[in-house]
User: Fold these one by one.
Assistant:
Number 1:
Amino acid sequence: MGFKLKPADKKYQDTNPEDLVFSIPHQEIEVKKEEFNPWDYVRVVNVRGEPEFQANSDEKVIIGHRGNPILGNKHPMQEKSIKERDRVIEEHKKDLEADLAVQGPIWNTLQNIAKDIVENKQKIAIECFCSPTKCHNDLLVPIIVSMAKEMLENKSNLEISRNKLKP
């Protein structure tokens, strides 16, 4: 069974395939271990509304609105305006900073969320009515990520220490 050269292939018609030597240089291919990025595992979503702003089926839903006495913003908006939203978020930020300073209930809850992300690779959706507009829960995401990164670092350091102890 043969093949017929197309006119464009005429320049190769005198080439004997057996004379061709292909050499693929051997290269060490560095396989990068896929890094675990906690930023991909936590986000703020809307309780209702458009599907792209709601939790996905693979996400664990954490209530972040006033229905949650720990994560809910205790400062209600007096009117619907950007200025008022900024005010209540700023008030919540003060509460959050005070709680984190003493490792209070908010800190404890965020630690548990970060632990779930690190140990179970569980995706988290913090639900509120504000999202996708500015939300007090937006303050929580970088804190959770920071906590998760610290846990990963501690876990990595522990593994290194254990390996050094092995004979």
Number 2:
Amino acid sequence: MSDEKRVEKLRVIYVEPGNRAQTIEIDDDLKAMQNLVGGMIEEYMPFEDDVAIICNDEGKMLGLPLNRGIREEDGQLQDIIAGDFFVCYAPIESEKFLSMPPYLEEKYKEKFDYPEQFFRTEEGIKGVQYDPGKGDISQETCR
């Protein structure tokens, strides 16, 4: 029997700018989480569900590419995540992040599936989803 401690795996939704979201497994340790987001991690919980967005703590300050918008229930843009991030299960009663249960995995993979491009308009910043397989969105889509 090996003396090495077995590292548990987490099933998470991984979201990169310009790519569709994907479900992956990562090691359940701080180093793996930091490697995935490219720096110190920040836990962000803007939703009613027990899920956390884990992103780079300095993503905006470092000028990382804008990734996905976080919206209010009425669709109003609340925030934009910069850089790679992942979504995991984070129930309040747990002291650590957990794998996404299937019903939440499906919901949040769909929510973050398509990448977004962001534009400044007279009304503020707008985000528009696009299919990366079809290239950039057209100005027609932005209206």
Number 3:
Amino acid sequence: MADDDLVEQGDRQISLQATVSRVIVKAMKELYGRGPTHAKTYFCDEYVFCVMSGGLTRSEETMMRGGEHDSVRDYRLRFQAVIAPELIRRVEDVLGRRVVSYHSQILFDPDRLFEIFVVDPTEDGGSGTATGGSSAPS
């Protein structure tokens, strides 16, 4: 990992991938009232993939027990569309690159949330083209 892929946070350096994970988990906690319990971010060329688990709200968990998976998915995807500008802004701030496209998806078995960002491939915000991932505790 290049030195440019490390970010100062307090008295320690953490990877850029872990910083993206932390920012997205924090945003979800603030906007949903509950956030994912695990997150790992991967960079591949101009693509940023954040894969998370946990974090369904109590009402969503209740709906799931009642077999309302499609309703929970529909709500989540509609809510993600509303908060997309905020997530994009936060990721752009971390990466120093413009996000040109964003997509969100949720799976229930296994429990996974996917946030996919496509950054402008003509910009080089110092993040390089790392292909590894780094997790961030919530």
Number 4:
Amino acid sequence: MTERGLTDDIMKRRTPVAVAFLGVALALGACGGKDGPEALAEQTAITTIGVNAYLWRASLETMQFMPLAQVDSTGGVIVGDWYQNPAAPNERVKVTVAILDGALRADAVQVSAQREAMEGGRWVAAPVRAGTVQRLEEIILEKARGLRQAALARD
């Protein structure tokens, strides 16, 4: 690998973490001094990176088990590459997460998944197990709410 290619590879790996950290740091710095529902609404609509920082960080943490093909914090899209669970080597999945809003709301995160199974030596499209996408969305939302609660508790 060339030096330029190695540098690009390192930057691709560090950028999502740095962006998430920056978003959380800016969000925490903006907290304080205001009371009431308006201040709380402002704190949950963090858009310093283009999308809600809590949802973004929670999505990255949730997707860390698989290689990532694309990460776009401005557009709020995380595209996973094909992942094979060692316990199920004859199937693979690909997951995409889209953050649709700057607010921390249930309808602000959308997960889609593809699944393929090995048949006759080639990968063939297979249905995603029922509830998989919904469960991933729930995990992301639970993590995001936990991150927000932890940030509020520090204030």
